[in-house]
């Protein structure tokens, strides 16, 4: 006997509905406009019955291979192998950017004096379950971009400064994911933590890729 839809975890129902939307759009059962509209609703709605109604007219269901493929596409890029213990970013009256498909160290130490830098972890390769970012920032501004499905812990201390964590990201318990720990001190400075590429954009990109594959 199956569990009533009202009693199931909402996030589980949401994930299943989004999977079915992607599957039907990629196989040509939904127009792009309908897919985007229903996807927006699926990511916002908190009622299980309303979520289920978004896909009740769709003919295609999701198989195990699709679920595994989605899990790999949306998970942070975790790889095996060795990496540097410590890497430094030093900016004095200057600015720098670290990003792209790079292998992050176990610990990243950032020193900014009248400067600014961008650390982009969106496509980074993680070899460890924890990445420590240690910051000393004086009269500077630093942006840290994190991927979805990671844990973000901020322990930095501010003096006439601020840490704005706009990522609001949390790990999916079904996906192996790293924890990013931000420590240090910010004086007359700002540290912004945010997601550069939203989960909706990832879902749309994945659906478009599958649509091209099945066309």
Short description:
With 215 residues, the chain is of the alpha/beta class. Helices cover 29% and strands 32% of the residues. The chain contains 5 helices and 13 strands.
Q: Your description of this structure?
A:
It is a single chain. The protein is α/β, with parallel strands linked by helices and 215 residues long. It is 29% helix and 32% strand. It has helices at residues 10-26, 32-44, 48-53, 64-74, 199-214, and strands spanning 77-78, 86-92, 95-98, 107-113, 116-120, 125-126, 130-138, 141-146, 151-154, 157-159, 162-165, 179-187, 190-195. Strands 2, 4, 7, 9, 10 and 12 form a 6-stranded parallel β-sheet that branches. Strands 3-5-8-13-11 form a 5-stranded parallel β-sheet, with no helix packed on it. Helix 1 packs antiparallel against helix 2. The longest helix has 17 residues, at 10-26. The radius of gyration is 20 Å and the shape is elongated. The model has no long low-confidence stretch (mean pLDDT 85).
Question: What is the helix tally?
Answer: 5
Give the helix level as a range of percent.
Answer: 25-40%
Q: Secondary-structure element order, as H and E? A: HHHHEEEEEEEEEEEEEH
Low-pLDDT regions: none
């Amino acid at each position: 006997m199956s569990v009533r839809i009202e009693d199931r975890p909402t996030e589980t129902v949401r994930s299943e509905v989004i999977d079915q939307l992607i599957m039907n759009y990629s196989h040509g059962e939904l127009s792009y406009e309908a897919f985007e509209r229903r996807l927006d609703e699926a990511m916002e709605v908190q009622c299980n019955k309303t979520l289920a109604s978004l896909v009740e007219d769709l003919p295609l269901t999701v198989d195990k291979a699709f679920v595994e493929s989605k899990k790999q596409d949306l998970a942070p890029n975790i790889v095996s192998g060795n990496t540097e213990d410590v890497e430094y970013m030093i900016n004095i009256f200057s600015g720098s950017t670290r990003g792209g498909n790079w292998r992050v160290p176990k610990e990243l130490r950032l020193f900014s004096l009248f400067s600014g830098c961008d650390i982009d972890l969106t496509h980074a390769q993680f070899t460890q379950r924890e990445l420590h970012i240690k910051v000393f920032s004086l009269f500077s501004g630093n942006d840290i971009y994190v991927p979805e499905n990671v844990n973000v812990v901020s322990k930095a201390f501010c003096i006439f400064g601020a840490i704005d964590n706009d990522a609001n990201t949390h790990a999916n318990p079904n996906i192996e994911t790293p924890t990013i720990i931000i420590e240090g001190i910010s004086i007359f400075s700002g540290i912004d933590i945010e997601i550069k590429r939203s989960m909706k954009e990832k879902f749309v990109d994945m659906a478009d890729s599958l649509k091209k594959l099945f066309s």
